[in-house]
Design a protein that fits this description.
Layout lengths: L14 E3 L2 E3 L3 E3 L14 H9 L6 E8 L16 H16 L3 E7 L17 E2 L10 E3 L5 E3 L4 E2 L5 H17 L4 E6 L4 H6 L14 H4 L1 H14 L4 E5 L13 H19 L5 E5 L17 H14 L4 E4 L4 H9 L5 E4 L1 H5 L3 H6 L9 E5 L4 E11 L2 E11 L5 E6 L5 E5 L3
Parallel strand pairs: 3-4, 3-14, 4-5, 5-10, 6-9, 10-11, 11-12, 12-13, 13-14
Antiparallel strand pairs: 1-2, 7-8, 15-16, 15-18, 16-17, 18-19
Bound molecules: flavin mononucleotide.
GO molecular function: 12-oxophytodienoate reductase activity; FMN binding
Cofactor: FMN
Pfam family, one: Oxidored_FMN
């Protein structure tokens, strides 16, 4: 049969993601923005998500903390109090009004925290009692950085409560109106601290073998699927990313074990997860992340293809996607969906920009002020009779300025400055 233009997948063609009909394959990647005052979503977040919504588009929220013990950054939103749920509703309503679908990313940072973020100054929790090495530091509420501390190693008896926190957070997210949830099993946070043998030094049923290290993420996925339905659950992993010391000696098979568990879950449930989201090995975060053993482009492609072929469902990739790389990934069948991070921060109109063959959007500068406000400078495309115009825009909502964070989309620098209140 001859493949027609309509049938050939492209970055701009529709896709059926389980329950959800998407009009294109460009997804907003989950990105921490530190603008939820004391964990509560603010109006600037309503604006941020609405700006990036398109009819039939798909957005994943910033990492959203599932319990008070899950915090490790200033002013990251939660989804465990009535007030947080009510304020998230405003974000979700604004996104839905623009015709987009939005999932809430469920996050627990584990040991990537500090007693300052924990009730009663307690130690953060983890799979281990070893601190993150000195190459990483924790951003404190006042904008300074602190050394990582020794965490409390979760006992087996404490694990059911952790699973219950993910389950309840998923229920809360659905009650806030989110269309689904993404379980954050990536980038060195709690679930990844169980997955990686560079961190997990346990000798009980949650440590040692690949199956044991994958047990917690599997149990969390089962519990969340049972609560809200597999078709409203996405899972994110990053087997090759070593952010926050999350090294593994065998990332290929670690990924395959998680994937096989997902396939089995799907078979038993008779339903697929919404998607599996994998971070490309080439992603680096602020110079803290180094490529793993799949660092060269051919090996990287091979490992991503192996996981893609093994997973029986929708496959999403993330990490330094340009326009060309996104088009290539979809047209070659390497991915069903591509999530864009930094380019979407600095280009709220990224979907239109990419579809219009606009130049690669690398010029934009984003300055955001943590807590409640933000100043964003970016370019917006406008279609005019004389052609496509690429115009600078200025968006400002400053209410309170204790911490200034500057992020450029091209240089990938992220740094924090303390500003006099
Ligand atoms: C400022 C910033 C915050 C991020 N926060 C999160 C997060 O909360 N959860 C997550 O899974 N990934 C997070 N990421 C990773 C992004 O989802 C994405 O995978 C990464 O930026 C690579 O895509 P890009 O090269 O298109 O930016 C963050 C990245 C950036 C730059």
């Amino acid at each position: 049969m001859v493949e027609t233009e309509e049938e050939r997948p492209s970055l701009f063609s529709p896709f059926q993601m389980g329950l959800f009909r998407l009009s294109h394959r460009i997804v907003l990647a989950p990105m921490t923005r530190c603008r939820a005052l004391n964990g509560v979503p603010q109006q600037c977040m309503v604006v941020y998500y609405a700006q990036r919504s398109t009819p039939g588009g798909f957005l994943i929220s910033e990492g959203t903390v599932i319990s008070p013990t899950g915090h490790g950054f200033p002013h990251v939103p939660g989804i465990y109090t009535r007030e947080q749920i009510e304020e998230w509703k405003k974000v979700v309503d604004a996104v839905h009004a623009k015709g987009s679908i939005i999932f809430c990313q469920l996050w627990h940072v584990g040991r990537a925290s500090h007693p300052v973020y924990q009730r009663g100054g307690a130690a953060p929790i983890s799979s281990t009692d070893q601190a993150i090495s000195g190459r990483s530091r924790i951003l404190m509420p006042d904008g300074s950085y602190a050394k990582c501390v020794k965490p409390h190693r979760l006992t087996i008896a404490e694990i059911p409560e952790i699973i219950q926190l993910y389950r309840q957070a998923a229920i809360n997210a659905i009650s806030a109106g989110f269309d689904g949830v993404e379980i954050h099993g990536a980038h060195g946070y709690l679930l990844d601290q169980f997955l990686k043998d560079g961190i997990n030094d346990r000798s009980d049923s949650y440590g040692g073998s690949l199956q044991n290290r994958c047990r917690l993420i599997d149990e969390v996925t089962h519990a969340v699927c049972a609560a809200v339905g597999p078709d409203r659950v996405g899972l994110r992993i990053s087997p090759v990313i070593d952010h926050l010391d999350a090294y593994d000696t065998d990332p290929l098979n670690l990924g395959l074990t998680v994937i096989n568990n997902c396939n089995e879950l799907q078979q038993h449930a008779g339903q697929q997860l919404a998607y599996l989201h994998i971070t490309q090995p080439r992603y680096t975060a602020h110079g803290q992340t180094e490529s793993g053993p799949f660092g060269n482009p051919d090996e990287e492609r091979q490992v991503m293809r192996t996981w893609r072929d093994a997973y029986q469902g929708t496959f999403m990739c993330s990490g330094k996607f340009t326009r060309e790389r996104g088009i290539e990934a979809i047209e070659s069948g390497d991915a069903d969906l591509v999530s864009y991070g930094r380019l979407f921060i600095s280009n709220p109109d990224l979907v239109e920009r990419l579809s219009l063959l606009a130049p690669e959007p690398v010029k934009a500068l984003m300055i955001f002020i943590a807590f409640t406000g933000g100043i964003c400078i970016y370019n917006i495309i406008e279609k005019r009779p004389e052609g496509v115009m690429d115009l600078p825009k200025f968006f400002c909502s400053v209410e309170f300025i204790p911490l200034l964070v500057i992020h450029t989309s091209h240089g990938n620098e992220l740094w924090a400055l303390k500003v006099a209140p």
